[in-house]
Structure formats: C-alpha cells, structure tokens
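Example (one chain per record):
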Amino acid sequence: MRRFLLALACACTLSVATAQGVLLAPKPVAPAAAKDFLTIANGVVDAAARPATAWNGPRNGPRAQSGKRIAVVAEDLHNGGILGAIDGVLEAARVIGWHVKIFDSRGDADMRLKILADALASRPDGLVIAGGDAHALLPALRPFAERNIPIVGWHVAARAGPVPGTPVAMNVSSNPLEVARVTALAAIAQSGGRAGVVIFTDSSFRIAQDKAAAMAAVVRACADCTLLEVRDVPISRCQELMPGATRTLLARYGSRWTYTLAINDIYFDYAAPVLTQAGLPNAAMAMLSAGDGSESAFLRIRTGTFQTGTVAEPLNLQGWQLVDELNRLFAGESVTGYVSPVHLVTADNLAADRGDRLFYDPANGYRDIYRRIWQRP
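Predicted structure:
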C-alpha cells in the first residue's frame, strides 16, 4: 500500500520515449493489493468529479491599473486550451480597461523567439505567454525583464507559481501532476483496474514530460493494468502524425489496447476518426486527457465517442487570473500563487458548471470577485 500512495503523492522520474521509440512498462506490483488500489482510485476520482466548490482564490488586491497595453504570445491558437485561456484574458481585459494584442507562434519552434521579439517591439506594459516552455523561451524573455516589463504565463512550466530561473512571475495552472494522476486513476477506476494503456505526450515541453511520467507511474502501480507504450507525438504535428500512430498501435496491440491517456485533448481530435474508420465500437476504447477540456473533448464525452473523461482546466477563469496577477505586478505587489482545483469531467457531470456549453466554467462567482478587487462595475 505504501508503494501505491507514493505513486500518487510524488512526481516520479520517467524518461519519455523519442518519436522513433517507445517506453515499455516494467513488471507491475504484487496483485494482492489490487483491490485496495482500486478503492483508492475510486475515491480520488469521485472527489475530482464533484461540482465546483466555492471560490478559494484571492478576495483582496490592488484596484485596476488602468490603460495598460498587454502583449499575449500564444504557442498555437489551434490548441483549444490556449485559445480558451486567451478568451478569458480578453474578457477580463475589457473589464479592467486594458488593450490586448495577440501574437501566434503557430506551434513552430523556429518562430517562437521571433514572435516574442515582435511582441517586444509593440512596446507592451506587460506580457502573457500562453503555452510554450518558459526555460526554452528564456533568451527572448530577458529583454522584457531588462525593460521591467512584467511577465506571467499559462502552462509554461511543470509547476504552478513563479518559474525559477526565468522572469516569469507566475505560471497559471492547475497542479499538472495532480491533473495527470487523476487522469490515470480515472482510467483505472473505469476499467476496474484492468486497463491496457497507451500514453501520448510531447517531449519538447517539460510540463508534458512530467504529466506523462506521473500517469505512467500510476498505471505501473496498478497490479492488473498494463502500460503498453508512451508515444511521443509533438502537439504541433498531431494532425500529421496521429492518424498513422493510431493505426500502428492498433496493429501492434489489437484488443490489448483499451485505454488511451494524453497530456492534451488535441491528440484525440485525430485519433478518434481513425478508430471509427477501423470499425472499433465506442466501448472498445476509452480516452482520457490530462488537460485541457476542449470543446471537441466535451462533445466526444457527451456523445459517447470514445472519450470518457478530461481533467478540464477552468480556462476562462485562468484568463482572469492572468490579468489579476499582472495587475498586482503593475501595482508593485506580489502574485497570489493561486492554483485552480483539479476537476474531472465525465458524462455523469458534464452538464454542470456550463459543461452543456462545451467548456468548464466553475460557478463560483470569480468574475464578480475580481471586479470587486479591481473596483470595476
């Protein structure tokens, strides 16, 4: 039992496979504790699936610092999570009275530093990075810091909070490792502790590597589950690579492959059609994502088309938080360090918290609370 609890509580180190290779699971732990592990999984999953709780974020802070110009640099606007967070930034910016200019790297590694240079040339008062890796972007972030331009990010590091070694004052996110563990435990709970799992990740991002490692550790701790493979597919090349990867895995594992976990819903956008074309019934494969709760993911869950869960981020709320964190920095105050609670969306709870509109927006009054903090009507 102690080994199981450690698998849930710690961030385990795992080498993620390259695009050409895979990572096979070692021998699972003793079957004697399988029932206990399944009990733990069911308890964690039930807690994560409960409706949004009351607001547990900040209630006090500086009034609106008016008239600011904000540059938002997106890793890729085709990513539903990034788009949802930026929509929240735009909504909050209208309330606080800021002008926002958006720059899109389009998932192109060669474009990232150039786009940040373009953002700097727009002479912003503050910078928001949506997606990407803060450490990889460091050369292009230093000029912002040299000009005392505050920087906040969304999903730009493996942990929420300030990003050590970079000028990013706050990385807004749920706890990525908790998100990953809940995702893997949901697969174990749904399968009755007998899942045959493939995990999709993107090794170019540390946050993705850590999520995959956490999911793999939980699957390995399930006595009667099998980790078939960890497959590295860059998010920016999902449309190109996922159909072929899905066909290859179907041919390799056949009926042994029953559960698919991924670090982002976008993988399933291109895997699900292949499963349908292959004639798989929806009950033959279950997909669960460790982020971010895209519209297409909600639609698949609602229609029962392979996907059975997503650990959805409160994207719009996190956009408001990004604005609030920047506002605090403009006022010379510290960031809040607020971390959104983890929430698992399934067919049973999808209609709650605006899920009927195909996104997760907790009904905890965050808009009114931020308005009061900023002293905006």
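Caption: The radius of gyration is 20 Å.
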